[in-house]
Every structure is written in C-alpha cells, then in structure tokens.
From TrEMBL:
GO terms for molecular function: DNA binding; DNA-binding transcription factor activity. Pfam families: HTH_1 (PF00126), LysR_substrate (PF03466). CDD domains: PBP2_LTTR_like_1. PANTHER family: HTH-TYPE TRANSCRIPTIONAL REGULATOR YBHD, LYSR FAMILY TRANSCRIPTIONAL REGULATOR. Belongs to the LysR transcriptional regulatory family. Keywords: DNA-binding, Transcription, Transcription regulation. Residues 3-60 form the HTH lysR-type domain. This is HTH-type transcriptional regulator gltC. It comes from the Bacteria. The keyword Transcription regulation applies.
Amino acid sequence: MRFDLTDLRLCLLVAEAGSITGGAERAHLTLASASARIRGLEETLGIALFVRHPQGVVPTPAGRALLAHARRVLLQIEQMRGELGEYAAGLKGNVRVASNTVAMSEFLPDLLGTFLTEHPNVEIALREQTSPAVVQAVLEGAADIGVVSDWIELTGLETVPFRQDRLVIVTPPGHALAAREGVAFADVLDAEFIGLPAQSALAEHIDGHARRAGRAVHYRLRLRDFDSLCRAVATGAALGIVPLSAAHRSATVLNIGIVPLVDPWALRTLVLCVRERDALPVYARQLLDHLQAPPVDITHTNKNGTT
C-alpha cells in the first residue's frame, strides 16, 4: 500500500478546514483534483475517511487514525527538512504555533518578528485558539508549540514559563471605578462593556466566568483588538477588560483608568507547551528557545496603572 505525501497533507488540510473546498484552497489544488485524490485514497484503503454532509466533512474513525499517522509522517519530513536546512541554503522550514488571544496580541508579535529576521528560511503559521483547543492541537500534533494559561490541564506536555498576564478593567476618564485599587468581576457585571469578538479566546474566557457566576456580560460593541477597544472606552461609551500590557500601552495616548481585577483567574501565568521538545523539527526547537524568558512580575498595579 503506497501513500502520497500530497494526499496526506490534503487530508490534514481538509480536516482543518472542515470541507474539501477549504482543504483544496489551502493545498492550492482545484476542487475536482482534491476530491479525486481523496476518493482515490479511500478506494485504495477500502474505507471512507470522511463523512460528507451539506455543511462540509468530518473524519470517520478510520479518517482520524489516518490523520494521526499523517501528522507524524509529515512531522518527520519537517524534521528532516529542518536538519538538512542547516546545510542546504534556501530550504524552508515551517513552525506551527497555536496561541491564546493575549499572547498572540501582546507578546508574540515582536518575538516572532525578531526570530524571522534571524532565520530567513523559516515561516511561522500562527493560529489563535482557546487554551483548551491549543492543548488539544499540540497533543494531536496539529501544532508544534502552544501558548496557554497555566490553569488548564497540561498532562502529557512539556511546559516552560513564558509571561504573566493580568486582566484589568479599563474605564473612561473620571469614571467612579477609576479611583478603586481593585475590583471583583462580579461587582462590575451590571455595567456595560466594549468587548472583543465573541469567537476570540479571551472573550470566551471572560464570558465563561460570567456564566459560572450565573450572569452574562452586556456588550454594547465588539471590536477586533485591544487598542480599538481602549479607544472606544476612552470616549465614555462603556468599560472594557484587557491585559495590563495593552492598558498601559493605550494609557500613554488615551485618558483611561486602569483597575485590576482581583479575581484569581484574572492573574494568569502563560506557558509554552510542546509534546516533546527533542522530537520537534530543528526550527521549532530554535523558536522555543527564542521564546523562553523569565516571566514579567505584574502582580500588583495601582489605580494609575503603574507597578
């Protein structure tokens, strides 16, 4: 039984996209070619790999088994390419990183940018996910490196500290909360908020804690990033919840108040996680080393946003 690497990559892309059309686009194949390749693979194996339905496709149990093997095979190919890349000029390496919202927005851009500058033969595929989804992606081999909050179950993964992340309330100028040294999340749930998109990892995290309190956050508006959110808050429209680093950055140009959330879940240590460091492709190991740094201590912030 012979397998084509293109077919294996295509199956992974189809599974990630949830449709043959999406997988074909990511693989730079026509829909007809991608469909023919998957049918041919299924005929060779004598078993269906995907269940087709109007909304797309989902892997069958046999498909999930194939995907697990495909990830391992392609990872070994990537390791080989990375090792040979030390000797063969121009050979590209690709590192897959999955991250929660805060790390992706606040900490990774500069670090990933400097890494790419130092490693011109590397490309990075960065994907935003909730911390549980990041862990699952790393465990399944769909991501090489994950960045998550340490409150999540990390059994089976190797981890190293990355940064500390404190969530704070940002307020309009002169707001009554701005004089507070800290505030509990439950005490502000009657207020109106500017938030991130509902599907963002941080929004899901905040909304989940509201649900556990038997409440819901009232959003007047959702914006795509922390800077836009803080700009809207500064107009007096509503409150916002952002990482301290984003609040500090915006406070340099905007008249906003910064009040720490005192709930234990609002202070999180972000960690880097991998399934097995020594099994990573060489470029992924280099990126992991590049990202490692002592956590920043931001455990206390006063009402003016200074530590």
